[in-house]
Amino acid sequence: MRSTASVMHLDLDAFFASVEQRDKPSLRGRPVIVGGLGSRGVVSTASYEARTHGVRSAMRMAEARARCPHAAFLSGRFEAYREASAVVMGHLREISPLVEPLSLDEAFVDLAVADVDVTDLDAVRDLVASIRREITARTHGLTASVGVASSKLMAKIASEIDKPDGAHVVAPGTEADVLGPMQVTAIPGVGPATAERLRRVGITTVEDLREPSEDELVRLLGQASGRSLHRLSRAQDDRAVEAERETKSVSVEDTFTTDVTDRHRLGAEIETMARAVAARLASAGLSGRTVTLKLRHHDFETHTRSSTLPGPTDSPTTIAATARRLLDDADLGGGLRLIGVGVSALADWVQDDLFTTETAPLDPADEQPRDDVPTPATDWSPGMDVHHATHGDGWVWGAGLERVTVRFETRTTPAGPVMTFPASDPLLRPGHARDAEDLTDDRTGTAVRGTVEQEGSGATVEP
DNA sequence: TCTGGGGTCCTAGGACCC
DNA sequence: TCTGGGGTCCTAGGACCC
């Protein structure tokens, strides 16, 4: 923990609803509820006018309508939210190079590297006031709540204190006293389940949380939570403000208006979602090895099935084929209310690039344009999925391999034969290998999928 | 007309290797 | 020859956040 109040947390007030009120004057002063408008929708953001009627985030839309029937119900305009967010984050980055966005409407800012004397609380207050004024001016009317303290924990808690449209600075040295009387749920990371476990042993306030030893908390809540709460309850927190946080996973999911049992329909949904995930991976310059299928049954029971590929992919066909295979193995029971497709174990292209340069040096002159022109069959690279080498999938390599070695695996022969093909082999021709089903070994009649590797090294192929 | 969509982090068990 | 421990990877699920 620092000795100065130099961590700032900023939170835009009722963000989505406020953007709507800003852009539509007729909504100002009226309850506005943004969220899913379908029968299974939930509230994303409620304006303060709607909150006085008890409408809250994550509440079912049906309940929100019952509580506040005269509100304006909107489905949200994410482009407008992203744009407003970018204006705010842009201003924060002018204040300090160390800005850590937590979402579109929230960020930590490290004031220790800003142009302000953080030992002077009045100077910090002045800076905060000017930041809030500037944000309102630049966004044409949005307001922000701000907390400043000596740690992320206390800055975040401080931003709640004078919300909305307020600011609070926690003087260094007073953190533990400020925190003590609060409910345990004031600590970010303590949700309903943890609060209930603590309540059962008589702990409801942060002060109560200081009673048990670290070992006792670890026994009650596990290693990570136990240790962390032992420290956080005493306001001990030295987590740094981190400007660059790596993406760990990319996913898409969709709740159906009515439950679905038809596997063909689900297969089509997977196809669409795989394309969306692949497009987002590609635009972020990412690819991943683990494909996860998420299924939520009619009774809300939720399961995930995942499969890790031998190499990273951002190919819609690979992602879809993997997810569909996971669906094939799943029991649909009484129908699904949600299906989702995700990719994790992400790598960026730079790593793949390094991996392949030995045999496929990257020459910009040889790069294929990422359009509808099929990649030549000679464009195979180590690590590339066999059914992955369609155009536009982000794997643009200069030189191709002369020969491609694939190890085939089927259910009956898990460590199947290793075969080497000329890179121009029709079996491996991209147009032929768009899909798992399409990629058939003519010699055995077996449908395969595979990974191209350097000659002599292994690769995984599944039936 | 019960319970969104996008994430992160943690835990636990099994496989596998040394 | 019945008894190890540690590390890493993979899978599944759960809690939590906005």
UniProtKB/TrEMBL annotation:
<comment type="function">
    <text>Poorly processive, error-prone DNA polymerase involved in untargeted mutagenesis. Copies undamaged DNA at stalled replication forks, which arise in vivo from mismatched or misaligned primer ends. These misaligned primers can be extended by PolIV. Exhibits no 3'-5' exonuclease (proofreading) activity. May be involved in translesional synthesis, in conjunction with the beta clamp from PolIII.</text>
</comment>
<feature type="region of interest" description="Disordered">
    <location>
        <begin position="359"/>
        <end position="386"/>
    </location>
</feature>
<dbReference type="Pfam" id="PF00817">
    <property type="entry name" value="IMS"/>
</dbReference>
<feature type="binding site">
    <location>
        <position position="11"/>
    </location>
    <ligand>
        <name>Mg(2+)</name>
    </ligand>
</feature>
<keyword id="KW-0548">Nucleotidyltransferase</keyword>
<keyword id="KW-0235">DNA replication</keyword>
<dbReference type="InterPro" id="IPR053848">
    <property type="entry name" value="IMS_HHH_1"/>
</dbReference>
<keyword id="KW-0238">DNA-binding</keyword>
<feature type="site" description="Substrate discrimination">
    <location>
        <position position="16"/>
    </location>
</feature>
<keyword id="KW-0479">Metal-binding</keyword>
<dbReference type="InterPro" id="IPR043128">
    <property type="entry name" value="Rev_trsase/Diguanyl_cyclase"/>
</dbReference>
<keyword id="KW-0234">DNA repair</keyword>
<dbReference type="InterPro" id="IPR001126">
    <property type="entry name" value="UmuC"/>
</dbReference>
<dbReference type="InterPro" id="IPR043502">
    <property type="entry name" value="DNA/RNA_pol_sf"/>
</dbReference>
<comment type="similarity">
    <text>Belongs to the DNA polymerase type-Y family.</text>
</comment>
<feature type="compositionally biased region" description="Basic and acidic residues">
    <location>
        <begin position="432"/>
        <end position="444"/>
    </location>
</feature>
<protein>
    <recommendedName>
        <fullName>DNA polymerase IV</fullName>
        <ecNumber>2.7.7.7</ecNumber>
    </recommendedName>
</protein>
<feature type="region of interest" description="Disordered">
    <location>
        <begin position="414"/>
        <end position="463"/>
    </location>
</feature>
<keyword id="KW-0239">DNA-directed DNA polymerase</keyword>
<keyword id="KW-0515">Mutator protein</keyword>
<dbReference type="InterPro" id="IPR017961">
    <property type="entry name" value="DNA_pol_Y-fam_little_finger"/>
</dbReference>
<comment type="subunit">
    <text>Monomer.</text>
</comment>
<keyword id="KW-0963">Cytoplasm</keyword>
<dbReference type="InterPro" id="IPR022880">
    <property type="entry name" value="DNApol_IV"/>
</dbReference>
<feature type="domain" description="UmuC">
    <location>
        <begin position="7"/>
        <end position="191"/>
    </location>
</feature>
<dbReference type="Pfam" id="PF21999">
    <property type="entry name" value="IMS_HHH_1"/>
</dbReference>
<feature type="active site">
    <location>
        <position position="106"/>
    </location>
</feature>
<dbReference type="Pfam" id="PF11799">
    <property type="entry name" value="IMS_C"/>
</dbReference>
<keyword id="KW-0460">Magnesium</keyword>
<dbReference type="InterPro" id="IPR036775">
    <property type="entry name" value="DNA_pol_Y-fam_lit_finger_sf"/>
</dbReference>
<keyword id="KW-0808">Transferase</keyword>
<keyword id="KW-0227">DNA damage</keyword>
<feature type="binding site">
    <location>
        <position position="105"/>
    </location>
    <ligand>
        <name>Mg(2+)</name>
    </ligand>
</feature>
<dbReference type="InterPro" id="IPR050116">
    <property type="entry name" value="DNA_polymerase-Y"/>
</dbReference>
